[in-house]
Amino acid sequence: MATDNTFYIDATTFANATAVYTDPALTIKAADGFYQAPIEGVATFREQSGGTLGTAANCTCAVSQVLDFNTTPTNLCCVSQTGVTYFIDQGTTFDTTTGLYTDASAQTPAPDNTYQVNGTSTYRVQSGGTLAATATCAICPVSCGAISIPNGNKGSYSLNVTLGTDVGSVVVYFNPFSVPDGVRGVYDSTSYNALASPTNGYIKTTSGVANAFTIIGNGSDACLPSTPNTTVYNYYDSISGGSWVQNGTESVTINNGDIQGGGSNEFSAIVIPKPNANPQTMDLKALGPCTGTLFSLEIVCPTALPSWSTSTIAQNGSSTSACAGSGLTAYFAKQYADRNDASVVLPIVHNWVFSDSTGATVLPNGFYKVSGTTVAQVANGVVTAITTCSATPTFYPFSSKQVNQPSAACAVTTLDETYYTTEPTGPGNGAGTDVYYLQSGVYYLVLDFVFVFSIGVGAAKNTYFSTLSGAVNSNGIQTCP
After folding, report:
1. Parallel, antiparallel, or unpaired for β 463-468 and 471-472?
2. How far apart are CA 188 and CA 208, in angstroms?
3. What are the sequence ranges of the domains in the chain?
4. What is the mean pLDDT of residues 130-156?
5. I want to staple 155 with a disulfide (CB 3.0 to 4.6 A). Which of 52, 234, 303, 466 is the partner?
6. Are 466 and 430 in contact (CB under 8 A)?
7. What is the full DSSP assignment across 204-243?
8. Cβ–Cβ < 8 Å for 260, 271
């Protein structure tokens, strides 16, 4: 704080003086320090050093300012704020001040952090004691879990969703109600647009466009455009105060095959694998091609999918071989109604099924044991049917030789391999007879090859059959020329 006193100068004005003295005779110079002449105004001061006055400088008195701070812009704008009172240059605002201080004399810069005035959407970063220019907060992501979605209009919608560092499977449950809506999830630059509907099963655009929307709901609604169609929609990318916030426009193409329908008034599931801690956010994209769009949404935070013990995977497997098999752990994504029900421990019809707990790899098409008495048929990674296992069949062995083509079958002279059918007559039963390998006690349908059925004796020729999807094909038993 300044102290009033009487001093003497060697000029008619303080601005022109060269030194400050304590006596009228100008023989004793005043102590070194900072001086100003109130009669000439207090906007400037001069420093006396070594008995000589320096040049005039502007006063930098500071006024208090209540602020919020955090370590980074994202943390400040989207996570949490801590209140603090610091000081800014007199006659300025937080947006225009050149400095931020901890003291009213503006001598001590505030700590390096990110600061904003409470309730605003802008911030300034203090670094090395210097305030950066004012910047606008980015759109804050919403947290995974149940998300409250307001009614919307015809438009394109996007939500950035925080997933955290946990790994596992992210299950998106999406309900378009009765109005058709498009949907896709984007994680780590990959789009996911295949859904499993509790009623309709597997639904996915057939356009072949990687980042296309799959439009579900009432696929025959007259509000839908003819395809292909490109429209500039209002673009909404955040929710504030219970309403969508528009942020410009976006051009979106609805391709041939994007409008699939199905999944009306129910939650269908999209499974997105998150095998690593990062990235920690995803984007949920929705398209409302019709006026008065409305959808409901829940995004389950990353967690391992539930598992069950099933039969060993065999390409071109059958329900019979699946019922007889064992030894594989597989995983499934529950339907929305079962998502929090711990008693649901086995997949049901129209569940997604996978070979890993993150949902990265769907089970190949085929049959998989669900329990000791039931078997699931899988297509496109979704259970299409669950049937009861028949009584354990009897497998009958027969000798054969597997070759690549009929001409090779005709040259075989020894049948030194064993295969199996569930028919006592073996492959001689003709087209449609399933043929099996036996490996480690488990029967598998054979792959598509040519098999020698008999060796010709004397003038007789070898006979053979070819398989398709593990069964004797429509040609039945063939005789070599």
Report:
1. antiparallel
2. 20
3. 8-58, 62-136, 142-303, 307-388, 396-479
4. 90
5. 234
6. no
7. E-SS--TTPPEEEB-TT-TTSPPSSEEEEEEEEEEEETTE
8. no
